[in-house]
Specification:
single chain, alpha/beta, Rossmann fold, 38% helix
């Protein structure tokens, strides 16, 4: 049976084919991984047209822009006008709590879909109630084999990696400080894109000073022990953070939790929350109830760094449970859910 023709619609304003950029897909851990898994195509949601849809057997549409009524209505029109042979998959992206707000247009989009791909298991009951269409927890393919190759020996690891952006939440920071080991965090530099200039000025009172957000973050924390780094490329991200002793991700979001998957593949213990879904499955002994479990997380972190056997156990436990994340099992699950396999 030939491979189905697959189109992924998501946020980046670009258009490309996976077959033309295979090197980019080897370590892709975002929604674009679906395009690479099928050797398919990608188009930004502002670019896509009805004529595009006719070329494909499966369209996977990222619904992360549901709060934009015009974008959601466009997706609905495309889904409703698609050819009979085209299967439409609405993929939940971002935080599931964003969908708690009643919005008729998003329910209509789900009802027009052949499948709703819920990427966060704890939030699955909500989406099953929202639509009469099939809803399943499938997720996003993850490059397990490639990331595992980037693991480093314990002897070469140092510092605690605070996963959250500095301006998003500071519960992770207080855990790191309480554990007592050196710690670091990333801060976003300012975008130079035209569409970002107004936001740059509103938030930071500057247009082009890319270090301004880092300086502001440093002032907020006022901690000379905190190592603030500017965000790096995806390739460098894995290589830099494979050297960390421990990752902290007290996430309040109900999402795909890529930090948890990244830590699991790199063989690094991560302290995270139940809302991530993956935390309870891959790191059951270092997953706290919610984002406020700061004191418990501090004790977990201290134990990890004082008990080498416990550290090794937590680090190695997830790998044997990550098979379902690889591209081929993911493809089979999606095709089965669409009655194409």
């Amino acid at each position: 049976m030939p491979e189905p023709r697959v189109l992924l619609i998501s946020g980046a304003r670009e258009r490309w084919s996976a077959k033309d950029r295979l090197g980019h897909g080897t370590m892709m851990n975002g929604v674009e991984a679906w395009a690479y898994a099928f050797g398919g195509d990608y188009v930004g949601h502002t670019f896509v047209k009805a004529e595009d849809i006719k070329k494909y057997d499966i369209v996977i549409c990222n619904t992360n822009y549901h709060y934009d009524i015009l974008a959601a209505e466009k997706q609905l029109r495309l889904a409703e006008s698609r050819p009979q042979y085209t299967k439409w998959v609405s993929m939940i992206e971002g935080c599931a709590t964003d969908y708690l707000r009643p919005e008729a247009h998003i329910r209509e989009l789900f009802n027009a879909s052949d499948l709703v791909n819920s990427i966060n298991l704890p939030s699955l009951p909500l989406f099953k109630k929202l639509t009469s269409s099939k809803v399943e927890f499938i997720g996003i393919p993850y490059p397990v084999e490639q990331i595992v190759k980037l693991r480093v020996d314990f002897a070469h690891r140092s510092k605690i990696y605070i996963c959250s952006w500095m301006d998003k939440r500071w519960n992770d920071y207080y855990v790191a400080r309480g554990i007592g080991e050196k710690y670091y965090v990333y801060a976003k530099g300012l975008s130079r894109k035209i569409e970002s200039l107004a936001q740059n000025w509103q938030r930071f009172k500057t247009l082009f000073d890319v270090e301004k957000s880092i300086d502001i973050a440093k002032n907020i924390y006022n901690d000379p022990q905190l190592d603030v780094r500017r965000m790096v490329s995806m390739d460098d991200y894995f290589r830099h953070n494979a050297n960390a002793l421990l990752w902290l991700n007290l996430d309040n979001r109900y999402t795909w939790a890529r930090y948890v998957l990244d830590a699991a593949a790199l063989g690094i213990p991560i302290i995270t929350t139940k809302s991530t879904g993956h935390g309870s499955e891959l790191f059951p002994e270092t997953t706290v109830e919610n984002e406020f479990g700061i004191d418990e997380a501090i004790q977990m972190g201290k134990r990890l760094l004082q008990d080498q056997d416990f550290y090794n156990h937590v680090a190695e436990f997830p790998l044997q449970r990550m098979e379902f994340l690889k591209a081929e099992p993911m493809k089979k699950r999606l095709l089965k859910a669409l009655n194409l396999a």
